[in-house]
Amino acid sequence: MSDVRTYLVLLGVPGAGKGTQAKLLQETLGLPQVSTGDIFRYNLKNATELGVLAKSYMDKGLLVPDEVTIRMVEDRLAQPDCAAGAIMDGFPRTLQQAAAFDALTAPHGGVRLAPLIGLSDEEAVLRISGRRSCRTCGAIYHAVANPPRVEGVCDKDGGELYQRDDDREEVVRNRLFVYYKQTAPLIGYYFAKGLLVELDGAQPISDVFAGLQAALAAHAALPTHS
Ligand code: AP5
Ligand code: MG
To answer: Which of 93, 99, 117, 212 would staple 183 via disulfide (CB 3.0–4.6 Å)?
Structure first.
């Protein structure tokens, strides 16, 4: 196969640390983080048609319809910065999305590894309640576990830190419910393909990252072409 790429699929409940780890991996692997949640939020901020549509689902903790999400990911992965692959954060999250992603990536060697960041629901709710995100660059902080140097201000670009609209407790609980109904089956899906690795997401951020790097090395899932 001539155009082999590296596609990693991060799995885990809302708040498990997918975005946090994807950003760290992006820096070390030289592959872009593709976060469908971030793309929807970007569209929302810019009041695009897609953003308005996505908001009606996100505000309730529901998934945006598969057709819309899959088309959006196809467009994103066709961008030049994804030429060597991508770190998928929040996609796929239904079996239909997983099948579409397999078809899309098959010419490039398919999904290389699907790390599952394990975390209890109670811990996930706590983490989400302390999360703050940068309005401009999307950097992720936590009031206790990973605070910025100056409260309310992003270390990276000085942007304003805010709490996501869908991080209200009642929405978070529904996001967890939706996760178990629609996304948890992907654990079995990737296990059956021999691509699942499980990590303990309750460890400190740097330890989860070390585990992730070790898993990538052990499964030969590191990019060979960057
Ligand atoms: P999305 O943005 O993907 O949200 P999510 O999956 O619910 O996940 P989160 O972003 O809440 O958590 P995370 O795992 O990234 O954790 P983080 O690193 O921030 O999706 C939002 C919505 O968009 C969906 O509900 C849906 O409506 C729509 N959508 C998105 N993708 C879709 C798709 N494919 N199909 C359809 N609809 C879609 O960490 C959480 C907090 O914990 C942070 O404060 C962080 O600092 C802290 N933290 C992280 N790791 C640690 C650690 N090890 N120790 C202590 N604290 C930690
Ligand atoms: Mg995230």
So the answer is: 93
